[in-house]
Design brief:
The protein is of the alpha+beta class. The chain is built from seven helices and 24 strands. It is 14% helix and 27% strand. Helix 3 packs across helix 6.
Length: 455
């Protein structure tokens, strides 16, 4: 079993024991939930692939000889009886959707390792194991630790396994690690189970600082609106840079991880087509490698202004902590010349392809900036620029963006935030991205509303 599952302190339990929802008990209990359809609709049921088994064991309770994998459990009690045959196919389909959601979240091929048994015929019955929860509440809510205790009593093995448990009674959506690591839900949909499954990697809800300690749900898959995983690659998941790690809980918790390296997932393989793609490094997106007051690694200033890693300050205004809870970059604009704050490295581009540059900016006063893409040829000579419109900054952490098509002869692009001459003010920058806009899996066309701030 991976070391992270053995290091179980009271702080870890508090972080991982997450209650997402609970349904009241009723006679006609129906666990089927609503599948998320943002950022775009999931495929119809017949189009969801059967992922198949990463490992197969005739005895699902004894996993010592198998590779790390997730075991799928249908949990029933006396209250509603054993409805395994009624629901087993549906549970398998939900698990396939969950796996599809992970894979579709990025331009990398990555999947959940699933454990099956050899006895039952057919994929669904091999994948989903029924288990009676003897201590489930009758007429009341059953917590995840009760299910965990029953699975332990039934002989289920903590070695090389985590458990996705679909409760066919009044349970809760929780992630819980003690003797076993279990993700449970009594509202069956891929968004909810994926959310709880991710929590087993010790990933907390992301916090954003424009509202102090506000939980930003869109980086955690949910049944309410989103299925994708960490679409900005700056909170807990980055399959493109496996050495990068991210703070997985709010300041001051020190936990850092990268979900893409979890032993319960296959190794990410480049490249397929998914919802999220980003051409920047983790440091260029998050400024996390540098201490407050320091000079930001990977960034360059030209003209009127100077920069630093943002000093600590009030989260409601200017803070070193933003979005992932740690670092941001401050630009001190000077009036004597146009100021340009740029990502030093120039990512490779393809002529004729559209790209989009995103950044979040805020100021405690007022000032105007524009986002610029400068195209370079193979000899590192600038060819042309694509400027977004000039926009006024506010005290909100707004997302600004600009798109451009790489011209003929372009080999690389430099990203810059440009402040026209004649201004003296300070702005704070964070959460940068550079996306390709040729993603046929999305319906937003890289959101071509260039320039104006978005939420």
């Amino acid at each position: 079993m991976p070391t992270r599952f053995k290091r179980l302190t009271s702080a870890l339990v508090a972080a991982v024991f997450v209650v997402l929802m609970a349904n009241p008990a009723h006679a006609d209990f129906n666990p089927i939930g609503s599948e998320p359809d943002v950022p775009h609709a999931q495929p119809a049921d017949p189009d969801v692939p059967e992922r198949g088994c990463a490992t197969t064991l005739s005895d699902p309770t004894n996993a010592g000889g198998g590779i790390p994998a997730a075991q799928i459990v249908y949990a029933w009690s006396e209250e509603n009886g054993n409805r395994y045959e009624q629901f087993v196919e549906r549970i398998a389909k939900i698990v396939d959707r969950l796996d599809w959601s992970l894979d579709e979240s990025s331009d990398y091929d990555q999947h959940v390792k699933l454990s099956c048994r050899t006895g039952p015929a057919g994929y669904a019955r091999a994948l989903v194991v029924p288990e009676k929860i003897e201590d489930a509440e009758i007429g009341g809510e059953t917590a995840a630790h009760v299910i965990e205790d029953d699975l332990v009593a039934a002989g289920y093995d903590p070695v090389n396994r985590v458990y996705m448990v679909f409760d066919d009674f009044d349970g809760t959506a929780q992630a819980f690690c003690e003797l076993l690591c279990v993700a449970t839900t009594d509202e069956w949909d891929s968004g909810t189970m994926l959310h709880e499954f991710i929590h087993l990697f010790d990933v907390d809800h992301a916090k954003v600082t424009e509202t102090v300690l506000h939980e930003d749900a869109d980086v955690m898959s949910t049944q309410w609106h989103t299925w994708q995983v960490d679409q900005e690659f700056n909170n807990y998941y980055d399959p493109s840079e496996l050495t990068a790690t991210f703070y997985t809980s709010a300041y001051p918790h020190p936990r850092k991880a990268n979900l893409a390296t979890w032993s319960m997932l296959t190794a990410p393989v480049c490249c397929d087509v998914g919802y999220s793609n980003d051409l920047l490094t983790a440091q260029e997106r998050t400024i996390e490698a540098d201490a407050p007051y320091g000079y930001p690694t990977g960034f360059t200033v030209a003209g009127g202004g100077w920069m630093q890693v943002t000093p600590p300050g009030p989260e409601s205004l200017v803070s070193s902590r933003y979005y992932d809870g740690r670092r941001s970059l401050t630009m001190n604009v000077q009036s004597w010349a146009e100021g340009s704050l740029s990502v030093t490295r120039k990512p490779a581009v393809t002529p004729g392809r559209r790209y989009k540059f995103f950044a979040r900016l805020t100021t405690g006063t007022s000032g105007t900036v524009k986002l610029r893409l400068t195209w370079y040829n193979a000899s590192n000579v600038p060819i042309s620029t694509s400027d977004g419109p000039l926009g006024g900054l506010t005290s909100d952490w707004a997302e600004y963006n600009s798109t451009g098509v790489a011209p003929t002869g372009a080999a690389t692009v430099q990203l810059s935030v440009v402040s026209p001459a004649g201004q003296t003010f300070v702005y704070v920058l964070d959460s940068l991205q550079l996306n390709r806009c040729d993603n046929t899996r999305t319906t937003d066309g890289c959101r071509l509303n260039s320039g104006l701030p978005t939420s």
